[in-house]
Amino acid sequence: xxxxNVANVQAHLTQFQSISDANGGNxxxxxxxxxxxxxxxxxxxxxxxFVTRVQSFSYGGATGYNLIADYPGGDENNVVMLxxxxxxVTAGPGINDNGTGSASILExxxxxxxxxxxxxxHVRFGWWGAEERGLIGSTxxxxxxTTTDRSKIKAYLNFDMTGSPNPGYFVYSASGQPSGxxxxxxxxxAGFTSLNVQTELTSVGxxxxxxxxxxxxxxxxxxxTGAEGIKTAAQAQKWGGTAGQAYDRCYHRSCDTLSNVxxxxxxxxxxVIAHALWAxxx
Length: 282
Ligand code: PHE
Ligand code: CA
Ligand code: ZN
Ligand code: ZN
Ligand code: ZN
Prior knowledge:
Keywords: Aminopeptidase, Hydrolase, Metal-binding, Protease, Signal, Zinc. This protein has 282 residues and is α/β, with parallel strands linked by helices.
C-alpha cells in the first residue's frame, strides 16, 4: 500500500474550511456548505476517472445528498466499501468531525488511481449526508439497495474523526457491535502495528454510519481517534497528549476548525486506511 502524503490530506481539509467560511460557517445538512462539499469532492473524483453518482434524499424539510464513487474494474460481485460522513453540525465547520475521515478516504481513492492499483475486488466509496441528524444518508443508501446488491458488499470500512487533536488510536471492536468483522479489525490493527502505534478496541455501537451497514448484516470495521471522551493517564503514557482532557475538546463546536487536527493522527490513520484497503481488495 502507498504511504499517504499527509500534506495532500491537509490540502483537502483546507478546502473544507474554505467551503465552510464561504457558506456561513458550517457544512451541515440542508445548508449550502454541504452541497458545496459534495460538489468539490465529486469534481476531484471525476477528474481521477471514478464513476460518481449523487443520491438525494429528503430529511427535515431539506434535500440531503450522498456521494457514491466507484473505482472502475474488479469483481462487481465482491465489493469493498469505504465511507464517512461529509456533513458537519450547524455549530461549526466540522473539520475533525468529519472533514478528516472524508479527506482521508478521498486521498486514498486518488492514490488508487495514481498508483495504478488494480484490485481483484470492486472498490466503492461513499460520502454520507445527514449523519449528524441520525445516520440518515447512510441508512437511505443501504435501504435503496436490492437484497442482491446488498449481498455483494463484502466489507464496509467507516472513518469518522481520524485526526482528533488529543488523539487516541481506536479500532472498532469486532465483538463490540453487530456484524463487526474480525478480519477487518485485525487488518486495521496490523496497519497500526506496522507504524509502531499501539491501539485499543472501542465499541462505537450505533454512533456512526457503519451501523446502517451492520443492520443489513454487512461486515463492518473502522478507526476513530476519539470525541468527547477523556484521555486517561495510561493512554497519555502510550500515545502522548494530555491526560484528563477530551480527545477532541472542540467536538461539535465552532472551534472544530483546521487548527483542531493532529497531523500525526491524520497521517497515521490515512496510512492505515490505505493499508487496509490494499489488503482487503487486492
Ligand atoms: N458519529 C459521531 C459524530 O459524528 C462521532 C463518533 C464517531 C462517535 C465514531 C463514535 C465513534 O458526532
Ligand atoms: Ca503517511
Ligand atoms: Zn459529529
Ligand atoms: Zn462524526
Ligand atoms: Zn499488513
